[in-house]
Design a protein that fits this description.
The protein has 14 helices and 18 strands. By secondary structure, the protein is α/β, with parallel strands linked by helices. Bound molecules: calcium ion (3 copies).
Length: about 575
């Protein structure tokens, strides 16, 4: 996933330093992992205390009945409508050991060892490279239809244009093992990690950069970015040609807004550049980064379509190409309470336009929404019709207020963890708070987003390519599995074309800027010990569900619904 919510602790530090604590209420205890309090909340607006507040009653799910899930089918062909794929997901940089050429290795490696010393060293990660083939058995034991993983670009191409046959053969072996286990591979081309030569994090953002084989200067450089787009498209074409005989499902990029905010805004991901707080000129550069990443999606899409000409699963489509989008339940807020004030509603709509619509509209309609009103207004016909399916990734509900305009261009403040400005809300149920990530799991938010997307893009097939919860409590993970499936089933019953669910993650891994504390795995990993994988209660339950392709009344009674969850200890 999906780190930024609590990675934005770092943003809060940056902003609070920059603003010299003129917004003191938002700059409190940095390590607070308790839910935001309701009483005594900071007053960050000048509005009347009796501002309009909405009714946030929970939906009525009715009495639990048995839910049946159809067999797995195509992600994008018309024949796949109504099908349902059970899966789990990982990403290379989060699981792979022996990965020194990736920017995350350099970024997190201790300074004494020649690294940049940011956050927790990724190091051995989950030993998911050494164990990649045997880990396929974990997916098989769960009875999954599909496994989503990423190929690490830096492992394949540690030096520009020097492709490592050994690395390609490694992923061949993984794919062969999946096919042998009757598990369909889904490959993500770019999941938050790059070779160091894409944009060397050791170069200061203010330093001039001339693109070279050693450093293409990154997504913000007017000369380097087109070269980088061509390189990643070439890489994608190589993967498609190599693996296309066994792989049909491709995701180009992952959570683009989260990724670009973290890597080119908040400085918590490599290359650690801040293009957002540099005034209008800086923000304009950030927007150019966003457009270049859309161009990268388009180039990857075209490269895969050209190179993967073999239909592996017989649905009539050789390559089904989408991307995966981070979504959330964005709740208008003010003074730490839900708000129905028009200025807060409008602020939440702008955040939604950026997070939910900007990329997906751009690569369907062929246009860019320059003013974040949810309507593309700058024509890019070369981007049109470049999306076969959309991956939806849902983790949390959070507040957005128009009482602060701290985010340039969007004129809003978002509550990420304890980054407040009056946008943070107390979780409706304290047991739904996820302490290691600092946000609220709100199950019906996924339904709301899926229904919204189904109405906006009725011809676009969707798959929930990530949903999960950071917890060490097996029963909480089992509850998350059932509640997520219940909300997906609600959307399907309403006619929304949702074709699958991938749990994040198959096993515990390196959670980016958050290191190893949040555990998202269906399998628990013994980090620093044996690295062995042990099934959680979530894994045991999911195995039962996939075995019968049914969610029973008993399972729903035990784990489902909208009530309290098993608490964190
Ligand atoms: Ca194929
Ligand atoms: Ca196919
Ligand atoms: Ca617009």
């Amino acid at each position: 996933m999906s780190a930024p919510p609590s990675s934005l602790r770092a943003l809060r530090r940056v902003l609070c330093a920059a603003l010299l604590v003129t917004v003191a209420p938002a700059c409190g205890d940095d390590d607070d992992t308790t839910p935001p309090a309701d009483a005594g909340a900071p007053d960050t607006g000048s509005v009347d205390a009796n501002f309009a507040q909405p009714d946030l009653a929970l939906p009525d799910l009715g009495p639990p009945v048995e839910i049946a899930f159809a067999p797995s089918g195509s992600t994008s062909a018309a024949s796949g409508a109504g099908s349902f794929t059970f899966g789990a997901a990982t990403a290379a940089a989060q699981i792979e050991d022996q990965n020194p050429a990736t920017d995350w290795y350099l970024w997190t490696r201790p300074e004494a060892e020649g690294g940049l010393g940011n956050g927790i060293f990724v190091g051995e990660a989950s030993r998911g490279f050494t164990r990649a083939v045997e880990d396929v058995a974990l997916a098989a034991q769960l009875g999954l239809d599909s496994y989503r993983f990423s190929v690490d670009w830096a492992r394949v191409e540690p030096v520009r244009d020097d492709v490592q046959e050994e690395a390609l053969a490694h992923y061949d072996a993984v794919i062969d093992a999946l096919v042998a286990a009757d598990i369909e591979p889904m490959i993500t081309v770019h999941h938050f990690s790059s070779p160091v030569w894409a944009d060397d994090p050791r170069r200061a953002t203010s330093a001039p950069c001339t693109p070279s084989d050693a450093d293409l200067c990154g997504w913000a450089d007017p000369v380097g970015a087109p070269l980088l787009i061509a390189e990643i498209a070439e890489h994608a074409g190589l993967l498609a040609a190599r693996y296309g005989d066994r792989v049909d499902d491709w995701a180009t990029i992952n959570e683009p807004i989260n990724y670009l905010l973290a890597s080119y805004g908040l400085t918590v991901f490599p290359p650690g550049r801040n293009l957002i707080l540099g005034g209008d000129a800086g923000f304009a550069r950030f927007i150019e980064v966003v457009k270049n990443y859309i161009r990268a999606h388009v180039a990857i899409y075209d490269a895969i379509k050209a190179a993967d000409t073999i239909d592996a699963d017989g649905d009539g489509v050789a390559a089904s190409v989408g991307f995966t989008l981070s979504v959330a339940k964005w709740q208008p807020a003010r003074r730490n309470r839900p708000s129905a004030e028009p200025v807060d509603v409008a602020a939440a709509e702008r955040v939604e336009a950026v997070y939910h619509y900007l990329f997906a509209d751009a690569v369907q309609q062929g246009g860019f929404d320059t003013d974040f009103d949810g309507v593309p207004d700058e024509d890019h016909p070369e981007w049109a019709d470049k999306l076969d399916w959309l991956g939806v990734q849902y983790y949390f509900r959070t507040g957005v207020t128009g009482a602060s305009t701290i985010i340039p261009g969007i004129e809003a403040a978002v509550c990420f963890d304890t980054f407040d400005f009056g946008a943070c809300l107390r979780p409706a149920d304290p047991t739904h708070f996820v302490p290691t990530m600092g946000y609220e799991y709100y199950a019906p938010g996924l339904y709301d987003v899926l229904v919204d997307f189904g109405a906006r893009w009725p011809a676009l097939p969707m798959t929930v390519t990530e949903a999960g919860i950071a917890t060490e409590v097996g029963a909480r993970r089992a509850e998350h599995v059932v509640r997520t499936l219940e909300q997906i089933a609600r959307a399907r019953a309403d006619g929304v074309d949702v074709r699958g669910y991938y749990h994040w993650s198959l096993f515990d891994n390196f959670e980016w800027a958050e290191g190893y504390e949040p555990r998202f795995g269906l399998y628990h990993v013994d980090f620093g010990g044996t690295w062995d994988r042990e099934p959680t209660e979530g894994a045991t339950l999911l195995t039962t569900i996939t075995g019968s392709r049914t969610l029973t009344v008993a399972q729903r009674m035990q784990y489902g619904g909208l009530g309290p969850m098993t608490p964190e200890p």
